[in-house]
Amino acid sequence: MKAKDPDDAGAPAESVCSMVLQILVPFLLAGLGTVSAGMLLDVVQSWDVFQEITEIFILVPAVLGMKGNLEMTLASRLSTAVNAGKMVLVREKRMLIIGNLALKQLQATVLGLLASLMATLLGWMAEGKMPFNHIVLLCSTSVSTAFVASLLQGIIMVGVIIGSKRMGINPDNVATPMAASFGDLITLALLAGFSQWFYSFIELYPYVLYLVDLLLLCLIPLWVVIASKHPASHILLHTGWEPIITAMVISSIGGLILDKTLSDPNLAGIIVYAPVINGIGGNLVSIQSSRISTNLHLNYSPGEVPEDRKSCYNPCRTFFGSGANHRSAQILLLLVIPGQFIFIHTIHLMKGGHTLPSPLFTFAFLSASLIQVFSLLCTADCMVHCLWRKGKDPDSYSIPYLTALGDLLGTALLSLAFLLLWCSGDSGSV
């Protein structure tokens, strides 16, 4: 009789076929969401507020990444709780959900404010000046977007996780990509809408912006009180800030790269594709991170890791093996090429293209995406086990770091690809 792989012990039984199907549908939905976000960003970049206050482009990866981090860490925590049987009792389930949602609103408000301050700092360093009314608009836009998007998508995410468990689907495969399916589009629409709305008030009624900031910040004590009532969210009130703040800073650097790339008219086409490469990379690595974390929660005590993870890290171990997490890493990497191929052609058709994207552009984009996802999956395997060995919960720590790294890698690789395409005279990226 074949020995059971440690990766499979205690985890929900899955065939390769069911794993592919459970991952594929949310992946395609998430991809269409990021494609829609890219098309929306292409439209709104010509709005007055985006032309006048270009620092908003620094906010875009930071706010989208922050939203993704909060949604995916919530999804990962609740998926692990469901698989570990911690949401069986109605009272326990209610306290866990309400505590996590309150914690997420608190984190969204604080991070929204910090993201706007980071965008202000980076914009000032790049331009050497920053008008005060621009700072106020960035703060109001970022905090309002983070607050509303977090509330809407948090409620949806709870429904997805509970529903998937009732349907016999592993929430680890579904929850994190569903968290991002149309989250980017909703968040970007809110960001554009709030920024244009506040821009119309900034000259005649600036006090509206102050009142909005004051109202949302005054709700912080309420979220603290609610989140502190559940032990799990109470712990995260004190320990859950480091990864999401660090991730926000990393994503902001990616936003600065995007802002500088857009300042060159020859590279302006990147705006459509940036949400796609960043969103897809973050979605895929979040699935793997959530799966590895669930396996560790089910089979090992904090600080204890499998024998083959106690030695030096070897990238081959991420993809080669008989365990469920090895298979999922292979599947996620194999999805990159066909998935991104579909998405770039969808973008091309939505832009009104009557010919196919050039082979050189297709090769450059797919290469950038493949390098990004391969790097992220290797990093996830190493990071999740390292965090667990140090006694830290990977559900709360790994995903913010990984998605932020995905934003930075994706934006940098995509900028490099567009620069090489421009230097070679290729017009397929237009």
Protein described:
Helix content is 79%, strand content 0%. It is built from 16 helices and no strands. Helix 3 packs antiparallel against helix 11, helix 3 packs antiparallel against helix 16 and helix 4 packs antiparallel against helix 5. The model has no long low-confidence stretch (mean pLDDT 83).
Largest sheet: none
Low-confidence sequence ranges = none
Could you say which overall geometry the principal axes of the C-alpha atoms support?
globular
Category from helices, strands and their pairing: mainly alpha
Helix content: over 70%
Mean pLDDT, to the nearest integer, reads 83
| Backbone CA Rg | 21 Å
Number-wise, the strands total: 0
Distance between the termini: 58 Å
How many helices in DSSP terms?
Answer: 16
Series of secondary-structure elements, N-terminal to C-terminal: HHHHHHHHHHHHHHHH
Strand content: under 5%
Topology:
Elements: H1 16-44, H2 48-52, H3 56-83, H4 90-127, H5 132-166, H6 171-181, H7 183-201, H8 207-218, H9 220-227, H10 231-239, H11 241-262, H12 270-299, H13 316-319, H14 324-350, H15 359-389, H16 394-423
Helix pairs in contact: 1-6, 1-7, 1-12, 1-14, 3-4, 3-5, 3-6, 3-7, 3-11, 3-12, 3-16, 4-5, 4-9, 4-10, 4-11, 5-6, 5-7, 5-8, 6-12, 11-16, 12-14, 12-15, 12-16, 14-15, 15-16
